[in-house]
Amino acid sequence: MKHFIMISLIFLLGACSTIPTVPEPPKALSEYKPPAWVLSGGGAFTDEKGKAFYGVGSATGITNFSLQRQIADDRARADLAKVFKYYTQALTKDYQAHTTAGNFDASAEEQNSEAAVKVIVASTLRGVVIVDHFEIPERMEMLSLARLDYDAFKRNVEQAEEFMRLPPKVRADIKERADKLHEEMENDVLKLQEGQGFFPDDA
């Protein structure tokens, strides 16, 4: 009888050990207390170094650390490219509207717009650097932050041959509108952050 009870207990204990436990629900990203850029994502910002454009990328579930980091970096650059696609499209549209309002003749307007587009597109992603990483081992996730300095971007544009061929008034208009567009994009990001409560009060 004693042997029967002992065998029964061993069987029950073994059976209990095989019962699956309910996993804890995954934490929200904010619960890991990441840096502000992880939650805000890409866009136009002004940091301690000045105006800049940012892109954020992530890679998950990759056991090779170097490969995971490389993929996260590439995705951050791709995210920055998306930010720039919006920026260049908006700047080009704004510039074309301005030239039309300024009574440029059709041929000159078309040529100036085309030259402006070429300059901006050719100069967009020079100087992009990965400036930060954030790892969440529990989620097997690596996040990367890509940054492009706005002043460096403007210098690339201003030094381009196509830009130098434009009339002085046109060059001045493009630079002015570029500055205003960056400010508008940054204000949009700040409004989104305030509305969704991305950051703590001391961020």
Give a quick summary of the entry:
This protein is α+β, with helices and mostly antiparallel strands.
Provide the fold topology.
Layout: H1 2-17, H2 36-40, E1 43-47, E2 50-60, H3 65-101, H4 106-123, E3 129-136, E4 141-149, H5 150-159, H6 161-164, H7 168-196
Antiparallel strand pairs: 1-2, 2-4, 3-4
Helix pairs in contact: 3-4, 3-7
How many individual domains? 1
Number of strand segments: 4
Distance separating the two termini: 68 Å
Total helices: the number is 7
Tell me the series of helices and strands, N- to C-terminal: HHEEHHEEHHH
In the predicted model, the low-confidence regions spanning at least 5 consecutive residues are 4-20, 196-203
Most strands sheet = 4 strands, antiparallel
Helix content: 55-70%
By secondary-structure content and strand pairing, the structural class works out as alpha+beta
Overall shape: it is elongated
| Overall average residue pLDDT | 75
Strand content: 15-25%
- Rounded to an integer in angstroms, the radius of gyration calculated over CA atoms is 26 Å
Q: Name the strands of the widest sheet in spatial order.
A: 1-2-4-3
Structure description:
The protein has 203 residues and is an alpha+beta fold. It has one domain. It has a 4-stranded antiparallel β-sheet. The chain contains 7 helices and 4 strands. The protein starts with a helix and ends in a 7-residue tail after the last helix.
Question: Which structural traits does this protein have?
Answer:
alpha+beta; elongated; four-stranded antiparallel β-sheet; 203 residues; 7 helices; single chain
